[in-house]
């Protein structure tokens, strides 16, 4: 098992914690990480692009002029796609871009993402992070003491003070263990785990 230092909110070492090799020491495969991140981003697409077709355009259905004898091209009603203001022919319709990757692959990718952060020395464990009140400046001082800037902070439980104190800081995101995902881990340069969150992650990914 890998042993990492546990820091306090001032960046001082207070103890050590063992990280399970089953989760934090997994060989990293970029193809699996790519597949899962691609799935996540596809699921986030709104898919609301839409056009009005001939039947959706408001207008008269009267034939504009007679079929023969005018020397002009045949014409139907004013909603024809050939006319300005008419319906669109091959435009997009609302759709869902979401698709699923097998659950085992998603879990493996999450282990690989955490392992990659540990291998690159971009994973930090903090014993606890408690703020007396909602204060962005106080939270920023903690991040500065830990010498981090682009951070994903993983907590074991929802902490309103942490969430509200961090939301105005660029490059900082606070997330619960239940919401931990591959995209957020790889997007942020550094990952900070609260010590109780380590056990929660091991419990979630070992099941």
Short description:
The chain is α/β, with parallel strands linked by helices and 207 residues long. It is 34% helix and 15% strand.
How would you characterize this protein structure?
The chain has one domain: Ribosomal Protein L4, Chain: A (3-Layer(aba) Sandwich). The protein has helices at 21-24, 30-44, 103-119, 136-145, 160-166, 182-187, 195-206, and strands at 2-7, 13-19, 123-126, 151-155, 172-176, 190-194. β4 (151-155), α5 and β5 form a beta-alpha-beta unit. The chain has seven helices and six strands. Strands 2-1-3-6-4-5 form a six-stranded mixed beta sheet. The chain is an alpha/beta fold and 207 residues long.
Number of helices: 7
Determine the N-to-C terminus distance. 18 Å
Low-confidence stretches: none
Question: Kindly state the mean pLDDT as a whole number?
Answer: 92
Name the CATH homologous superfamily. Ribosomal protein L4/L1
Please state the overall shape, judged from the principal axes of the Cα atoms.
elongated
Largest sheet: 6 strands, mixed
Quantity of strands, as a count: 6
Question: How do the helices and strands follow one another from N- to C-terminus?
Answer: EEHHHEHEHEHEH
The helix/strand class is alpha/beta
- CATH topology-level fold name: Ribosomal Protein L4, Chain: A
CA radius of gyration = 27 Å
Count of distinct structural domains: 1
Could you give the order of strands across the largest sheet?
2-1-3-6-4-5
CATH class placement: Alpha Beta
Helix content: 25-40%
In percent terms, what proportion of residues is strand?
Answer: 15-25%
CATH architecture: 3-Layer(aba) Sandwich
